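Onboarding guide, step 5: your first structure request.
Type a short instruction followed by the sequence, for example:

Predict the 3D structure of this protein.
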Amino acid sequence: MDIKDYIELIHSFSKTNFELQGGGNSIYFRLQEERDIVFPKEFQEYIVHYAPAHSQYLDGVGNPIDLYSARRLSWLMNGYNYNPVDNQPIPGWDKTWFLFGDEGADPIIVDLAESNRNSKVYRAMHGAGGGILGLSPIQ
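The system replies with structure tokens like these:
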């Protein structure tokens, strides 16, 4: 399955009216230039064509999933990889992880070090104080 297939699958069972329009090339290029990193092709396609215009919430079992708006996508995410109180990085956050949503504050990421055609999406357990307690692929 590619990203288009996944979007269609979500639409088939979700009652949420999605506004997936992407952030366009400007957001993608800004993110890429800030870290001088190339995103996996399908995640680039997500940012440019499918990232929500506004945060989108998907209801499921347990906490809803919050897909961040294209404008919210950033390398610096308070409480996940950066502590704004002491202006320091939060230990345990890998520099190749890119956060694009959360489920009850548990981060949903793509590991940019994995440059496979089909990037795995991971969910991590977010501990008190911002630490990451575990990382598992979303199936």
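Each response can be followed by summary notes, for example: The CA atoms of residues 22 and 51 lie 4 Å apart.
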